[in-house]
Amino acid sequence: MSYTKVIPGLVRANSDNIKRICLSQGRFRSTVASKQHKEVEGGKEEQQLVECTVVKAVQADLISQTKNNTDAQTRKIAIDFDNTHEAYKSKDNIELLRSLLVFKLCTFDFLVDKNKELMDLSKKVFGKRLFERLMKMTFYGQFVAGEDHNSIKPLIHKNQAFGVGSVLDYSVEEDLTQEEAEKKEMDSCVSEAEKESPVPAGEHFVMQEHDYSVDHREKKYKAHRQFGDRRGGVVSARTYFYADEAKCDAQMETFLNCIKASGGASVDGFSAVKMTALGRPQFLLQFSEVLVKWRRFFNLLAAQQGKSGMDALEQKLELEQLKESLTKLGVGNKDDIENWFTGEKLGSSGTIDLLDWNSLINDRTKISNLLVIPNVENGQLEPLLRKFTVEEEKQMKRMLQRVDVLAKHAVDNGVRLMVDAEQTYFQPAISRLTLEMQRIFNREKPIIFNTYQCYLKEAYDNVSVDVELSRREGWYFGAKLVRGAYMYQERSRAEEIGYEDPINPDYEATNRMYHKCLEFVLEEIDHNRKANVMVASHNEDTVKFTLGKMNEMGLSPTEKKVYFGQLLGMCDQISFPLGQAGFPVYKYVPYGPVNEVIPYLSRRALENRGFMKGSQRERSLLWKELKRRLLNGQILYKPVY
């Protein structure tokens, strides 16, 4: 598959007219969801429930008379998250004490705020070898699985024996100063052509140090030095900065090794990747801006028909009115516009929705031709930038090629690929690239999973539009739902630069959004067994909400359509009871050399401060289990598996 099939163009334009826009051939489109319900053997499921004391099973009522007879045997499952014996049976007493120590240290503001400086000081005082041993006894041992593919295998196999799988995540980051990070970001997010080209008449560049932009570029999708260090205000997420193409190739090789290790270590494993590790972020910024402006153009046309304020899929434009609007805007002559829709058999129902709008595309041989946007004032399609250098064109192409290589490698190794979410100014492009991979590789089973950040105001629209596309085209939808890792950075950037805050107003609104998105996907699974979701959450209420919905819908854990995910070293009282009850549950498993994962550990400490201050529950459960073992004479307790 060539890179041109990974991502389609938006339109073909030249200075005189807009040529006819084409759909890629062979794409099946249907608005009817498949009804491929998968039967579950009630007897086998019942046997699994009896063997696991953490599970309470009660007979379920029939959800509707139309359900098949298998549903009558489905049992409601309730997990006891207070059962410390089941939650911590995979841990010896030393591991429990380590967890208590680490979680307690994370509640002290001084230690957390100065954790990087204190670790650097400890390294100088104790020396490298003793420092690494100390870290393995505390923070590293708690949150990181090991240094390489071989050293992480014992932990992976132990967790698997207790029902918990792994999402491998190589967590090594460059240890850059803030100034170094800012310079790398500014150099990699600004086009060389913008820096070198003379300013055209009637336009001007905003000239700040390494901040070059044409007037029609939006502030949100430009690099800004004060936010060049993308590590600021971020918890848990890895951060990559572009150096050169050789570095991107090396990072791709790291991901390939991670996929291979995941395939060899467990069945049905996951591996996590980040798009910003695979190429120059300039392309992600610019393509994101193009996608957003095309969607905004659709919203403008919807508003002209009195259909603003609706959910994305509810906005259906009357075809004849749409043609008139486009003609008045000067987008094309009447015959051209007629060909866009009738030539591709769109609008046969008399309306056009957002998915139809997005499908007015055709493959392009030159990636920079993607970056054209509609000018609402004059109706013309204009390039986002004046030109690209030959090298930048190659860089964009190589990024797509690396994505293709990773997806093929995941298929070959029987591993599912989870594409992490990133900042909102990169995310539209990341989601589109991931969507294109899903359309290609998720035809027979879910291989590629996209990540949806539910602290975003537009999260539900994004989820619902992508689910509908998968339904129409007949491929397997795969999603990981998270609350999000960039809230503080996103809010600060929006306020200082001057654009709308993309984040929900408060934590309660984010919870509602998470549950709304989750319920939508669960309903899609209920109607069409081609949807899959990972509930990546440490929130016990969200996990219970999911279990309740699964019970209502008769979704069995043995179908493996709903997964659960937590970070290694956190919330074992959720992960292990779920795993032992037969639910597919996974730990995000970071690994890498001690000195090279310090940036990751530093943020883990920052995240745990807020987490542990907000809840004493995990520490109280750890103490409860330690006391139970001591009272029962299990001082030298060792897990048996």
Gyration radius, to the nearest Å?
A: 26 Å
The number of helical elements comes to: 25
Low-pLDDT stretches = 1-74, 198-215, 361-365
**How is the biggest beta sheet arranged?**
8 strands, parallel, barrel
End-to-end span in angstroms? 44 Å
Q: What would you call the shape?
A: globular
Structural class by SSE content: alpha/beta
For the largest sheet, list the strands in their spatial order: 3-4-9-10-11-12-13-14
Overall mean pLDDT: 80
Task: Estimate what percentage of residues fall within beta strands.
Answer: 5-15%
How many DSSP-defined strands? Answer: 14
Q: What is the share of helical residues?
A: 40-55%
Describe the structure.
With 641 residues, this protein is an alpha/beta fold. The chain has helices spanning 42-51, 69-72, 84-87, 93-105, 109-113, 115-126, 128-137, 139-143, 153-161, 178-189, 192-196, 245-265, 281-304, 319-329, 334-342, 354-358, 390-412, 427-441, 459-473, 487-497, 507-527, 540-553, 572-580, 598-614, 617-631, and strands at 55-59, 75-79, 164-170, 270-273, 317-318, 351-352, 372-374, 381-383, 416-419, 448-453, 477-482, 531-536, 562-567, 585-591. It has an eight-stranded parallel β-barrel with strand order 3-4-9-10-11-12-13-14, surrounded by eight helices. A two-stranded antiparallel ribbon has the order 1-2. Strands 5-6 form a two-stranded antiparallel ribbon. It is globular. Residues 1-74, 198-215 and 361-365 have low confidence and may be disordered.
